[in-house]
Amino acid sequence: MKLILQNISKSYGSVRALSDFSAELTPGIYALLGPNGSGKTTLMHILTDNLRADTGVVLYADGDQEPQNVRDMGESFREKLGFMPQYPGMYPNFTAKQFLQYVAALKGVGEKQKKRERDAQIEKQITEILDELELSDVAHRRIGTFSGGMKQRLALAQAVLGDPKILILDEPTAGLDPKQRIAVRNYISRIAMGKIVIIATHVVSDVEFIAKEIVLLGKGEILQKAPCPELLQQLEGKVWEVCVSQEQIAQLQNNFAVTNIAAAEKQVDMALVRILSDARPTANAVSCAPTLEDYYLYIFGKQNT
Q1: Which of 53, 180, 209, 211 sits at a 20 to 30 Å CA gap from 171?
Q2: What's the rounded Cα separation, in Å, for the pair 103 and 44?
């Protein structure tokens, strides 16, 4: 299975949202990272046919098939999609279970089966998904009474319903507490087998260890596209930690890219400062292993995005 994006461009008036975006995606998790306005959401809406590109084409191929233009495939392509938008619309008077039943009907889940078999299949899927996303206890509550985190998990539930081959998730962990974020991240990683999963997020740590490739977007263009370990190799010897007094922090921030400041353990009035620098920033600085967040700041800290 392949999803091939060829020279996708999109503008809003004089603002260029995407510029000749090209990529070939195979099963696995792809993380779209970039600042606001970099083109992530625009790309997702083009992939889901909610928005038409100005130029370029999206092609889909399964097995030995010749790639087909997804616009020509119409419904046969859309039924392969699961989409979680950043701001999903939901019916507040529906219960969680009623909403998923409604989405299952819209998606045509089990439509080729007899009614009794279809209903049993839908019931089984909904029960399993609600359980996995820790929503079983609120399955019969109205959505209007849900917290933001509950709605976020329900939005993910409707996206994965029907076992789509292509899963497109816009900020899937936004508004979740750390425990829920880990649970959702593990769930996505587990169900990604055999699927093309595209995740746009600002929570860099959520994709560092599960993404097959990281795609960094800036002003609608691909700046980097590679597995996380390859990206982090570029930062070897460029990430440092140094213990300094509170008075020295401002000076370091003026001279270097500071990615984190934390109180030093067992040292009153001292701070542990994490720095990005091509050379050792101070005599007592210690080299440390880079993270994807370091890399993100290394790339976008240099740009006026």
Answers
A1: 53
A2: 20
